[in-house]
């Protein structure tokens, strides 16, 4: 029989470093007054909340992620085509524009060779008419060059307008001004 002096030893429970950090943060009050505390989760009970991918769509929106790499190739090619000819405006030669467009058409044709998956008809990206796109590229470059020249002229005219009154003042006019200043100061 055990005596009355027996004390039962209580083994301390092991606490993982993560649990310890969370417990200490709770004790410091770092989890108090967080945004959304005590409120229902957004999107639950709404038609958007019934979407099984609601969380990933929210993450993409919140983090402003670019998912172009996750798109099906045909959709990515269609998006790329929609940027023509503006995305080609920085290219300086017709040969480089033609090379980019021919590479695009090559990738579209390769995508069409990919086997279809599922019962739905496959999505196909259209090719571009290289000659028509080169013409649009030329027109865009000419338009931008005209706009830059007009901006340059306006800036030069503004600079000339600011400088011309002082530059156009004659020596006599400057002398007259100086003498007026001297008269004002009493140094005639």
TrEMBL record:
Xref: InterPro entries: DnaJ_homolog_subfam-C_membr-28
Domain DnaJ homologue subfamily C member 28 conserved residues, every copy: 18-88
Spans annotated as Disordered: 28-49, 149-175
Pfam families named in the record: DJC28_CD
Low complexity bias locations: 157-171
Highest taxon in the source lineage: Bacteria
Protein name per its UniProtKB record: DUF1992 domain-containing protein
